Amino acid sequence: RKAMFQAGFLVARRDPSVVDELKNVILEGNYTGGFQLANGWGGAGYGGYVGSMAMQGLMAYYYDMIRPNTAVELNQCRFNHMGMDIRYRHAPNFHKRKKDKVGKCRNDNPHDICEDCTVTDVNLIYNVHYTECRKPWNCIGAGSPGGRLKKPADSIDTDAGNFEHCMELIQKWHETRLDFEDKLFAMTEDKMILKGRDGDYKKDIFKGHCTGEGGENYQPIQASDNTWRQVMEIY
Predict the structure, then answer these.
(1) Do 210 and 147 reside in the same domain of the chain?
(2) Does residue 143 sit in the same domain as residue 204?
(3) Is the peptide bond before 92 cis (omega within 30 degrees of 0)?
(4) The pTM is what?
């Protein structure tokens, strides 16, 4: 099975011909569905995954088959950071019968060397993709093996990630929102802003933006129409 491209992050040097070539691949429509080896774009095995018909499969196919040797894979612990276990120990796509792979790096490094993304120092991370650690606005402050307490994805999956690390990443997001609110309030003195941060659920993490566990308890930013019109003045 071919490796897919994580579509959450792409750094590219502008080249209109790339866009044209990608468009031509899509318009040609040479995509084979199913889970056989000759599936996906060009029937070359780039299918069978979530997003394989879209960016995750298309970009992998393009840079492997159409423009080979023109792309560089970045350190996934530093760029598009998810905080997921990069070793083959748990889901996704884990099979105990693959005994030769269990416990080894998912990137197939010949020397079995891979950074532990579950504990990467946040100061070394360039950008975060909130998926393994859940969305910050989901107000999830609990962890469990498999990421399920009562229903799927209602907690942080401690099989695939580190709970404390995820909480640190989520806290960073809420600190960023809090900083924005502080600047907006200092400029407008709009007291509506304060109403969106009066929650008391794990306030050290969620900074007042959550009133309880779960996305239904998230408090969006509140502000008057006049305040929203002044947002661009901050930047």
Answers:
(1) yes
(2) yes
(3) yes
(4) 0.88
